[in-house]
Amino acid sequence: MTATISHPPTTEAADRSSPSSLRLSLAPAGSAPALLDGAWWPRSRDLGAELPALTAVLDPLWGRITRVTVNPTQWPVIPRKVPVAGHVVNVGWFLAEQDPHELLLLSYRVGRLNLLVVPPQTPPDSAAWLMAAASDPHGTLTASRLLEEATRRRALRDADRAVEAVWDSEGGHAARDSAARPRTATGR
């Protein structure tokens, strides 16, 4: 499955309930085990509201999701049980034992799966990169390390844009463009 990056919804509740709009990227089926099995980009930090759409997509692919664990530093409220599509998913948490940016899922058929949780406020370009990197079957970075790398890449891009803006303000593009134009003789 590939990343699905959708445009801002007309209503968040309607968008969240639609599995086709789920922002999810999974490693190719049958690929060698990596640290992460993919990435999920929820629209909020409301686990009770976000989890049903995620499990609706994953249940047919991986078997019924029975348990989810998270790190509480990223989720303000962690419900003990979340009703989803005819069954209940038990939710637990680990503080020191689990990467703060990872969601661990347990299913009957596949066993344990690990997803990077892309923070909801992440800009779309960074989220797309994170989702692709997390679903790379050759990936060797942890969820937190991927987020650090995305932050570093964004800072470099912003610095490059700032340098270009200064160059432009000093006549950079205009000077280059006028230098590239051929000069014509004026009748003097």
Secondary-structure map:
Elements: H1 12-16, E1 24-26, E2 38-40, H2 47-62, E3 65-70, E4 81-84, E5 87-93, E6 102-107, E7 111-117, H3 124-134, H4 143-169, H5 172-180
Parallel strand pairs: 2-7, 3-5
Antiparallel strand pairs: 1-2, 3-6, 4-5, 6-7
Helix pairs in contact: 3-4
Please, could you describe this protein's structure?
The longest helix has 27 residues, at 143-169. This protein has helices at residues 12-16, 47-62, 124-134, 143-169, 172-180; strands at residues 24-26, 38-40, 65-70, 81-84, 87-93, 102-107, 111-117. Helix 3 (124-134) runs antiparallel to helix 4. The protein starts with 11 loop residues before the first helix and ends in an 8-residue tail after the last helix. It has a seven-stranded mixed sheet. The chain has five helices and seven strands, in the order αββαβββββααα. It is 36% helix and 19% strand. A hairpin with a 3-residue loop joins strand 6 and strand 7 (111-117). The chain is of the alpha/beta class and 188 residues long.
Name some characteristics of this structure.
alpha/beta; 5 helices; 36% helix; disordered N terminus; single chain; 188 residues; DUF5994; 7-stranded mixed beta sheet; 19% strand; DUF5994 family protein
Could you describe the largest sheet, including whether it forms a barrel? 7 strands, mixed
| Helix and strand pattern | HEEHEEEEEHHH
Order of strands, widest sheet: 1-2-7-6-3-5-4
Computed structural class: alpha/beta
Q: Residue-averaged pLDDT, rounded? A: 83
Percent of residues in helical segments? 25-40%
Separation of the first and last Cα atoms: 68 Å
Strand content: 15-25%
- State Rg: 22 Å
- The count of β-strands is 7
Unreliable residue stretches:
1-17
Shape: elongated
Number of helices: 5
Organism: Streptomyces violaceus (Streptomyces venezuelae)
Protein name: DUF5994 family protein
InterPro entries: DUF5994
Pfam families: DUF5994
